[in-house]
Structure formats: C-alpha cells, structure tokens
Design brief:
By secondary structure, the protein is α+β, with helices and mostly antiparallel strands. The protein contains 7 helices and 8 strands; from the N terminus they run ααααββββαββαββα. The chain has a 5-stranded antiparallel sheet. Strand 7 (about 210-215) and strand 8 (about 220-230) form a beta hairpin. The longest helix is centred in the first third of the chain and has 44 residues, at about 1-45. The chain is elongated, with a radius of gyration of 31 Å. The N and C termini lie far apart (about 120 Å). The mean pLDDT is about 85.
Length: about 270
C-alpha cells in the first residue's frame, strides 16, 4: 500500500513539474519574441543606429532568452545548471560534428555583421541569387527577389561566396549601347544621345554624360552612352532612355539595323 501511495505522490509531482515546464516554455517563447520585436522596433526608430545591427542583436537576445528558458525547464526536473554544463561539455564533440554547417552559419553571421558587406534594404547578389535584403539573423540571410519570391541563404554560403552589392554606392552608371547603320550620320546619332541625356533631370551633370563610338560591328556602328544617376533611379533611367532613343532615332531618320537573311537561288 505504501508503495502505491509513494508512486502516486511521485507521479503527481511529475505531472506538476511537467505543467510548470510547459508554462515556462510558453512564457519564455512569448517573452523572447516580445523582447526581440521591441528591440528591433526601437533600433529602427533611431536614425543613428543601423537597422541591420538591430535585427542581428534582436536575434541574439531571442536565442539567449530561449536558452535560459530551456535551463529553467531542466531545473524543474532536478537537472541543475552545473550538471547541465557537464552534460553539454560531454556532448560538445558529438553536437559539433552533427551541427558543423549550423555552427559555420553562426560564425559567418557574426562576420557579416562585423564587416557589413550588405545591409537591410539593399539590393545584392549573394551566392548566385539576387534580391533585396529583408533580414539577417544568426543563421540565415533572407532575400526577396524582384518578383517578391523569398530566398533563404545560409550565412555560411553568403560569407563564403562573392557578394555583389548594387546599393552600396549612392550613384550608379547607366551604360546603353545603340547600333546604327553604316550609312547613317554618326555625329547626328551622337548628338541625339547627348541631348536626350542632358534633357533627363535624373541624369547627373557631374560626371557629365559620355558618348563615344565603341565598336564597328558586322552590320552596325555601335555607339555607347554612359550616364550617371542616383542608384534608386537606375532602372527607370535605363528603360526610359532606351525608349526615348528609339523614338528619337525613328523621328530623325537614324536607322537601327537588324540581321537580314538573304536567300540565294540557283539557276536551273
């Protein structure tokens, strides 16, 4: 009888501890998310702080709170912090072997924040994928492609690959190449390109637009226009200038040649 009573008491204590553990887990998870979001909002609201650092710090604090929550839960089952450290020390080798990629991503995350090759909101090409940086946390970098597809790049791959940051500098150069017919007036075509660049208020005057003949192709004389603009205007300037040049060439009699296929007929 005493054994049954003892078992019931022990079982009741286990249920109580399990309920407490569940409550602590839920509370810790909610608290970690709340603190993380609060820190991120505070940093983004401060113009003197970089949003990228705020996001990364918020991620670190979230994981630290979750780790402390896990230690508290284990403590409810009689596993003290000192015992937990001993267990973790014994399992370090096995965990390290199993999580080599994860640990590499973690280390790379710190390198990305330390050297900051890209920041939130910048348009970059990382590990062969181009997109706008939406998030940088301990393990991954989140990108959004121009058609709004989410791309998750492990930090280890991001740090270990060539990074092209299209948004790092405030200005960019737009390069446009147009081919005209060999019979057309080269100077006339150059004047059209220069005047269109000068008329576009988004094109910078310093450095001034550059127009030169850059190639003599098989069927065309290639003229290159190089114009500088604010980085945010790059694509609009590129597309709209291309259309404006085509319309101006048509209006002023400058032809843009295209490949022709000549069929030779044999006499019978």
């Amino acid at each position: 009888m005493e054994m049954i009573v003892d078992f019931a008491q022990a079982h009741a204590a286990l249920v109580v501890n399990a309920a407490k553990a569940l409550l602590v887990l839920v509370a810790g998870w909610i608290f970690a998310g709340l603190v993380s979001r609060t820190i991120r909002k505070r940093v983004m609201a401060n113009e003197n702080l970089d949003d990228t650092i705020g996001t990364f710090v918020a991620s670190i604090i979230r994981w630290v709170i979750l780790l402390m929550t896990a230690i508290a839960v284990l403590g409810l089952f009689g596993i003290q912090a000192t015992s937990l450290v001993a267990i973790m020390g014994a399992a370090t080798l096995a965990i390290g072997m199993a999580l080599q990629g994860t640990l590499s991503d973690l280390a790379a995350g710190f390198m990305l924040i330390l050297f900051r090759p890209y920041k939130l909101g910048q348009f970059v090409e990382v590990a062969g994928t181009a997109g706008t940086v939406k998030d940088i946390n301990l393990f991954v970098t989140e990108l959004a492609t121009p058609d709004n597809v989410q791309i998750i790049v492990p930090n280890g791959q991001a740090w270990g690959s060539v990074i092209t940051n299209f948004s790092h500098h405030a200005t960019r150069r737009v390069d446009l190449v147009f081919g005209i017919d060999y019979g057309d007036d080269i100077n006339k075509a150059k004047d059209i390109l220069a005047s269109l660049a000068d008329a576009d208020t988004r094109v910078m005057s310093d450095p001034e637009p550059w127009v030169r003949v850059t190639n003599l192709g098989d069927s065309s004389v290639d003229i290159t226009l190089r114009a500088w603009c604010v980085a945010e205007d790059y694509w609009d300037v590129k597309f709209e200038l291309t259309q404006a040049v085509k319309e101006a060439f048509d209006a002023q009699g400058v032809s843009i040649p295209y490949p022709h296929v000549v069929e030779l007929k044999r006499e019978a």
